[in-house]
Write a structure and sequence with these properties.
alpha+beta
């Protein structure tokens, strides 16, 4: 049932893999040399000030990326099925199914490795959250680490994905972005 719930809730295009050993406990205090990314669906996170942010007015999903496009972060939001819809799992069970499906999404890629399986996390404003991390190789041999932080609030599911070239600074860079993730009041998007 859990895999079915994840498949019903999150189309493949919204799933990406990722998260990690960093503490995803969010506290909303913007760090120096960062810019805030927020969406009208009620989320906010910080990225380096040098990154470009792509969003349209009222957008629920914003993409932030480095100038060369090798580093990126985005949030996908989907509505969970309402109570009594036939999917009788708790928000924590659905959250875990989504996180697991996201982690295994990239399993067919070369060099696919689960670096950190799904584990509980904390996100300010969320009812429940989980994090995980994978690594894989692209066709040109570049190794990418993807960090995933999934949070549920009410009937909404939020997935923050941070994708960075593998390396000693990747975990710290991802941790800075992921630890800034909070769920906010729903309102107009701003960047």
């Amino acid at each position: 049932m859990k895999a079915r719930a994840a498949a019903l809730l999150f189309p493949a295009c919204l799933l990406a893999a990722g998260a990690g050993p960093w503490d995803a406990t969010s506290a909303r205090s913007q760090q120096a040399n960062t810019q805030a990314v927020s969406g009208s669906a009620g989320y906010q996170y910080d990225v380096p000030a040098t990154w470009q942010i792509e969003s349209s007015p009222g957008a629920t999903v914003s993409l932030a990326s480095s100038a060369d496009g090798t580093e990126l972060a985005y949030v996908s939001i989907v509505s969970l099925p309402p109570p009594g819809s036939g999917i009788d799992e708790s928000s924590e069970e659905v959250l875990h199914a989504i996180t697991q499906a996201s982690i295994t999404q990239e399993s067919g890629r070369a060099g696919y490795t689960v670096l950190h399986p799904a584990e509980p996390a904390s996100v300010a404003g969320a009812d429940a959250a989980e994090q995980g991390e994978i690594s894989y190789s692209s066709a040109d041999g570049t190794v990418t680490d993807e960090y995933l932080l999934t949070a549920v609030r009410g009937q909404e599911g939020y997935t923050l994905v941070v994708s960075l070239p593998a390396g000693s600074s990747a975990s710290a860079a991802a941790g800075a972005i992921l630890s800034s993730f909070v769920l906010t009041d729903i309102g107009p998007a701003s960047i």
